[in-house]
Amino acid sequence: MFMRKSKSGFTLVEILIVVIILGILAAIVIPQFTNASQDARKSSLVSQLQTLRSQIQLFRLQHGEVLPDLITDWTAFTGTTPYGGKTFGPYMQAAPKNPLNNFGVVVQGSDGVSDVAAGSGFVYDYGDGVTGTGRIWGTSDDLGTKIYIE
Predict the structure, then answer these.
(1) What is the pLDDT of residues 9-23, one digit of tens each?
(2) In terms of pTM, does the model score above 0.90?
(3) Which of 44, 108, 118, 137 has the highest count of CB atoms within 10 angstroms of its CB?
């Protein structure tokens, strides 16, 4: 009489079924994480814009209704500025970057403008410092050419 040893393990068909199931689950789950990441960047931009808008208004109040010149660079916000015998600022610790495209360049724009120069992170209604509204928007695409309307 021969004794037969039973071999335990998975067959090739069982392994293939498991791999197929894992592939289907990955195809369903990965796009959900991609959308969540983009949504988080959009939320971060909205929060950043709210902070920038409030700091612009604070600057305007402290500097005799004159807007900060963010078109040139961010030094009006990241440094101190004298006005009326007092020194104000800094309004931000560092120059912000748009979380949607990682650009920090600010360009002149106004309400209703939908196309701006490539590489722009923010669009700012500065005017000449007195006539602008002080509103600021972020750009939404990788090229920095479309305004993100939140």
Answers:
(1) 889 999 999 999 999
(2) no
(3) 137
